[in-house]
C-alpha cells in the first residue's frame, strides 16, 4: 500500500472512531442523569470526552506528518481501538430512550451495560490503546492530556464491574407487574402500596425485577496468596529508615538514572557486605518510585521471617501490586486468575510465566512509563534452590521487549547469586558493589548521618554544643564504612537520654585498633549494648543469671522459623510474667520491641543474628549462641507447650466430627490455638531436625523420651 493510501486508511479509521465516540457521548448525555445507573459505568463513561479530544489530536498529527512510516505504525492500535469503540456504541444504542418508562429503560440499561463491567472494560481498552499510541508518539498530544490519560486509565482499571456476570441467574427478589410496591429509602421502615414493582433504595443491596445490583464484587486478585510483610511499606516495616537526603547521593542518583533508561540493562544488582546500606537504599528507591506511581512491586526477604524467608509466595506477591500499579496489565493478570483457579499451587516457574510474563507479552509495545521491581536481600531467602529459581525468573523477564520493567536486586556478594546472574550477558544487567565505594566518600556520608542524629539527640537532652567534632570523627573512624554501626551506635546513645554523653564515651573508650576488619567494630558495639543492658549494681551471681536469660531469649529469637510477638515468645519459652519484658530492657538499639505486644519482635539488622551464632565474632561466652543447642531448646519448649495445651479432646468444641479444618472459622482457630501454640504445632519437627539430635539419644527418642510420650498421648488429638 502506498504512503498516501496508508495515511488515508488511518485517517478514515480515526474519523470513524470519532464519529462513534461522539455519538456515544450523546447517548450517555441522554441517560447519565438516571439516578439508578451503575456508579462505575457513569465514572467510566465520563472519560469519553477525553477520548474524543485525543482522537482529534491523533487525526491532526497523522494528517500533518511527513513520515509515511508513522501511518503504518498507527494502524494496528487504531484498528483495535475501533473494534472496542464499535462494541461500545452497540451497547449504548440499547439504552437510547424509545418511549420506555424511566424504570423500564433503567432495567434495560442494567441488563446490558452493567453486566460484567462491559462498558468499563471497553473504555479501559480504548484508553490502553490511546496510552500505547501516546507512548510511541509522545508529540501526538499535550503533556496535560497525557497526564489526564494516565489518570483516567488508572482509575478505570481499578473499577469493579457494575454487575457480576451471573446476575441474571440470581433468584428473583422482586418483580414487575401489578402488585405492591415497597420503597425503603432510609434505615427505618416505609411501605407505599401505590404503584407497581418492588424497589429497595436503602443502604443495602438494590433489587430490581429479577436483577441483582451488587454494591461490591469480589476482587479476583484476592484469590492469590500474599506475603503481607514483603512490601517495603508493610506495617511491620514502617519504622525502617530511608537514606538521609545528603548521603549516598551519587549512587542513588545512578540507580534513578538506570531506572529511567531505555537500554537493555533491565537488572541492577546492588551487592555488598552486611551493614553497608543495601536495604536502606532499596527502601529509598521503592519509596521514591511509589510516590511517583511507578513502583511495580517490592519484595523484601528476611531470614526467619515466615513468608518472607522463602519464595513460595514470591510470584503471587509480585503479581498483586503489579496488577494494581500497572493499569494495562491488570485485565491480563485477572484473566489468568479467572481461568486458572489453581494458579497459586503451580510451580514458581509456571506462576511466573502465566501471571507475569504472559501478561507482559500481551502489551502492544512498551509501557507508557518505566516501572521498577525492588527485590531486597535475596540472600536472606533460606532455600538456596529457590534463590536460583528466582534469578532464572528475573532473567526470563529481561528477554521480553514489550515492557520497560526495571529490576533492582540487592543481596550480599554470594557466589551462588554471582553465578546465577552470570548466565545472562552483561548487556542485560549491571552490577554495583557497595563496599567498593571510595572510603572517603563513605566516611563523609557516615559523618553527615552521625552529625544529624547526634545533634538531634543533643537538642532533645538540652545539651549545648554537643557532640564535639572530634567525637564525630572518632565515631566515623570506628564505623569502618558500615552504616549499620553508625545507626546502632546512635540508637544506643539515644536510649541513654540524659546519660547520652556517658554512652558516647563508652563507645569511644572501646578498642581503637585500626587494623581490625569492619565487622570487628560492629561486633564491639553489639557487645557493648549487651553488657550495658544489665545494671552495673547487680552482684556477680545476678549478672550471670541475667546474661543466661539474655542468651536464652536472644538465642531463641534468632533461630525462630517464623516471627512471634514478644508475649507469644514469652509464653512459648515459659517465662514468668514480667521477666521476659525485663530482659528486653536496654536492647532497643539492636531489637525492635514494639509497644503493641501483638506485633513481632524483630532484629534491627540481620548482622546481629550472624554475630550471635558465630563463635569467631561473639567472643564473649555470656552471649554466644550455639545454633543446634538453640534449636534443641525450642524443640523442648514446643513439645512442652503442646503437651500442656493439647490435652483437651475436641479442642474446638465441635458437636460432631464431620467438619474439616478449613471449615473452622479463623476467629475460632485463633481463639483456641494461640500464636505460640500454632507455632509449636507447625515448627517443632523442623527445630528437632535442625538440632541434629541423634537417633540413639535416649533423652528424646526412646520409649520414655518426651517425643515418644507426646506422640503416644497427644498426637492424635
Automatic annotation (TrEMBL):
Domain Nephrocystin 3-like N-terminal: 256-412
Record's keyword terms, sorted: Repeat
Domain NACHT-NTPase and P-loop NTPases N-terminal, first and last residues per copy: 14-133
The keyword Repeat appears for this protein: yes
Top-level taxon of the source organism: Eukaryota
Gene3D superfamilies to which the protein is assigned, alphabetical: P-loop containing nucleotide triphosphate hydrolases
InterPro entries (UniProt xref): NPHP3-like_N, P-loop_NTPase, SesA
One family name in Pfam for this protein: SesA
Name of this protein: NACHT domain-containing protein
Protein's organism: Stereocaulon virgatum
Lineage: Eukaryota, Fungi, Dikarya, Ascomycota, Pezizomycotina
Amino acid at each position: 500500500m502506498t504512503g498516501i493510501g496508508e495515511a488515508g486508511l488511518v485517517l478514515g479509521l480515526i474519523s470513524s472512531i470519532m464519529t462513534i465516540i461522539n455519538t456515544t457521548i450523546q447517548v450517555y448525555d441522554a441517560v447519565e442523569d438516571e439516578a439508578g445507573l451503575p456508579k462505575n459505568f457513569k465514572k467510566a463513561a465520563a472519560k469519553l470526552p477525553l477520548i474524543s479530544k485525543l482522537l482529534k489530536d491523533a487525526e491532526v498529527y497523522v494528517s500533518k506528518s511527513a513520515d509515511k512510516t508513522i501511518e503504518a505504525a498507527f494502524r494496528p492500535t487504531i484498528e483495535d481501538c475501533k473494534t472496542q469503540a464499535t462494541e461500545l456504541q452497540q451497547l449504548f444504542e440499547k439504552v437510547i430512550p424509545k418511549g420506555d418508562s424511566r424504570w423500564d429503560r433503567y432495567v434495560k440499561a442494567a441488563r446490558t451495560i452493567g453486566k460484567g463491567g462491559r462498558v468499563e472494560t471497553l473504555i479501559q481498552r480504548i484508553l490502553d490503546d490511546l496510552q500505547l499510541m501516546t507512548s510511541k508518539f509522545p508529540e501526538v498530544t499535550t503533556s496535560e492530556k497525557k497526564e489526564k490519560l494516565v489518570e483516567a486509565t488508572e482509575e478505570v482499571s481499578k473499577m469493579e464491574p457494575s454487575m457480576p456476570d451471573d446476575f441474571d441467574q440470581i433468584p428473583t427478589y422482586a418483580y414487575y407487574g401489578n402488585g405492591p410496591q415497597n420503597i425503603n429509602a432510609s434505615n427505618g421502615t416505609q411501605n407505599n402500596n401505590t404503584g407497581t414493582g418492588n424497589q429497595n433504595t436503602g443502604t443495602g443491596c438494590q433489587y430490581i425485577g429479577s436483577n441483582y445490583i451488587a454494591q461490591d464484587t469480589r476482587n479476583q486478585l484476592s484469590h492469590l496468596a500474599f506475603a503481607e510483610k514483603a512490601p517495603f511499606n508493610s506495617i511491620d516495616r514502617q519504622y525502617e529508615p530511608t537514606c538521609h537526603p545528603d548521603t549516598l547521593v551519587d549512587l542513588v542518583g545512578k540507580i534513578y538514572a538506570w531506572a529511567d533508561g531505555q537500554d537493555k540493562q533491565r537488572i541492577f544488582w546492588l551487592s555488598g557486605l552486611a551493614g553497608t546500606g543495601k536495604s536502606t537504599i532499596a527502601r529509598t528507591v521503592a519509596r521514591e518510585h511509589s510516590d511517583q506511581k511507578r513502583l511495580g512491586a517490592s519484595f523484601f526477604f528476611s531470614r526467619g521471617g515466615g513468608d518472607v524467608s522463602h519464595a513460595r509466595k514470591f510470584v503471587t506477591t509480585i503479581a498483586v501490586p503489579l496488577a494494581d500499579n500497572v493499569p494495562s496489565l491488570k485485565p491480563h493478570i485477572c484473566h489468568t486468575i479467572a481461568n486458572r483457579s489453581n494458579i497459586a499451587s503451580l510451580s514458581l516457574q509456571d506462576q511466573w510465566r502465566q501471571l507475569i510474563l504472559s501478561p507482559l507479552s500481551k502489551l502492544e509495545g512498551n509501557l507508557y512509563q518505566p516501572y521498577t521491581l525492588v527485590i531486597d536481600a535475596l540472600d536472606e531467602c533460606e532455600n538456596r534452590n529457590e534463590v536460583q529459581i528466582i534469578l532464572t525468573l528475573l532473567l526470563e523477564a529481561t528477554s521480553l521487549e514489550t515492557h520497560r520493567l526495571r529490576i533492582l536486586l540487592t543481596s550480599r556478594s554470594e557466589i551462588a547469586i554471582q553465578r546465577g546472574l552470570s548466565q545472562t550477558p552483561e548487556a542485560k544487567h549491571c552490577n554495583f558493589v557497595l563496599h567498593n565505594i571510595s572510603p572517603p566518600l563513605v566516611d563523609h556520608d557516615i559523618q553527615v548521618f552521625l552529625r544529624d542524629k547526634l545533634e538531634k539527640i543533643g537538642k532533645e537532652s538540652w545539651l549545648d554544643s554537643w557532640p564535639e567534632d572530634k567525637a564525630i570523627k572518632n565515631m566515623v573512624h570506628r564505623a569502618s564504612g558500615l552504616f549499620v554501626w553508625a545507626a546502632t551506635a546512635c540508637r544506643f546513645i539515644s536510649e541513654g537520654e540524659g546519660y547520652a554523653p556517658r554512652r558516647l564515651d563508652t563507645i569511644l573508650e572501646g578498642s581503637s585498633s585500626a587494623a581490625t576488619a569492619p565487622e570487628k567494630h560492629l561486633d564491639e558495639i553489639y557487645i557493648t549494648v549487651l553488657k550495658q543492658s544489665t545494671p552495673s549494681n547487680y552482684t556477680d551471681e545476678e549478672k550471670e543469671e541475667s546474661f543466661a536469660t539474655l542468651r536464652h531469649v536472644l538465642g531463641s529469637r534468632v533461630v525462630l522459623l517464623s516471627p512471634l510477638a514478644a508475649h507469644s515468645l514469652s509464653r512459648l519459652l515459659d517465662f514468668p510474667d514480667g521477666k521476659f519484658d525485663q530482659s528486653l530492657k536496654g536492647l532497643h538499639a539492636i531489637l525492635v520491641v514494639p509497644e503493641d505486644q501483638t506485633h513481632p519482635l524483630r532484629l534491627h539488622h540481620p548482622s546481629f543474628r550472624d554475630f550471635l551464632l558465630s563463635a569467631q565474632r561473639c567472643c564473649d561466652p555470656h552471649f554466644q549462641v550455639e545454633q543446634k543447642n538453640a534449636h534443641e531448646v525450642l524443640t523442648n519448649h514446643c513439645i512442652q507447650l503442646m503437651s500442656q495445651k493439647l490435652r483437651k479432646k475436641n479442642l474446638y468444641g465441635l458437636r460432631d466430627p464431620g467438619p474439616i479444618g478449613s471449615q473452622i472459622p479463623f476467629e475460632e482457630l485463633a481463639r483456641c490455638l494461640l500464636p505460640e501454640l500454632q507455632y509449636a504445632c507447625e515448627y517443632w519437627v523442623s527445630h528437632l531436625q535442625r538440632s541434629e539430635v541423634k537417633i540413639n539419644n535416649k533423652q528424646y527418642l526412646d520409649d520414655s523420651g518426651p517425643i515418644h510420650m507426646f506422640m503416644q498421648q497427644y498426637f492424635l488429638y
